[in-house]
Amino acid sequence: MSRHRRGDKKPKRASLLEPSQPPLFSWRGKRLMWGGILLAVLGFWVLSWCDPLGRNWASWVSPILILGGYFLIALGLIWPYLFPSF
Fold first, then answer.
1. Phi first, then psi: what are they for 56, rounded to 5°?
2. pTM of the full structure
3. DSSP character string of 47-73
4. pLDDT at 24
5. Considering only CA atoms, which of 21, 61, 9, 6 is closest in space to residue 39?
6. What would the pLDDT profile of 32-66 be if each residue is shown by its tens digit?
7. Residue 13 phi, psi (nearest 5)
8. Which residues contact 20 (CB under 8 A, 6 or more apart)?
9. Are the beta carbons of 86 and 28 closer than 8 angstroms?
10. pLDDT reported for residue 70
11. N vs C: which end of the chain shows fewer Cβ within 10 Å?
12. CA nearest 24: which of 77, 82, 70?
C-alpha cells in the first residue's frame, strides 16, 4: 500500500540552497521585542513599590516603563515593514 514502485517519484524535499521565505521577524525586531518585554516586566516590578495615593517616584516611573515596553514590542513587530532594508 505504501510501497513505492520503481517508476514512482517521491515528493521533493525543500533544498537548503533554494530560496525560502524571509523570517517572520527581523534580527532588530526580535531585539526590540525582547527589550520591550524586559522593560514592561521592570515596569510591573516597580509598580509593586507604588504608594496607594500615587505620591512617590514609583507611581510616576512605572507607567512610563510599562507603556514604553509595549511601544517597543509593537515597534519590533512592525519593524520589517517600516524599514525593509535594515
1. -120, 180
2. 0.71
3. HTT--TTS-SHHHHHHHHHHHHHHHHH
4. 78
5. 61
6. 999 999 999 999 999 999 998 989 999 999 999 99
7. -90, 155
8. 14
9. yes
10. 98
11. N
12. 77
In the prediction, which pLDDT does 16 show? 58
- Residue-range domain boundaries for the chain: 33-82
| Nearest of 76, 83, 81, 80 to residue 35 by alpha carbon | 76
- For residue 1, pLDDT beyond 60: no
**Would you say 32 and 76 are in contact if contact means Cβ atoms under 8 Å apart?**
yes
- Amino acid identity, position 25: F
Contact present, 41 and 48 (Cβ < 8 Å): no
Grid cell digits, residue 63: 507607567
State the pLDDT at residue 61: 96
The whole-number average pLDDT for the span 3-14 is 61
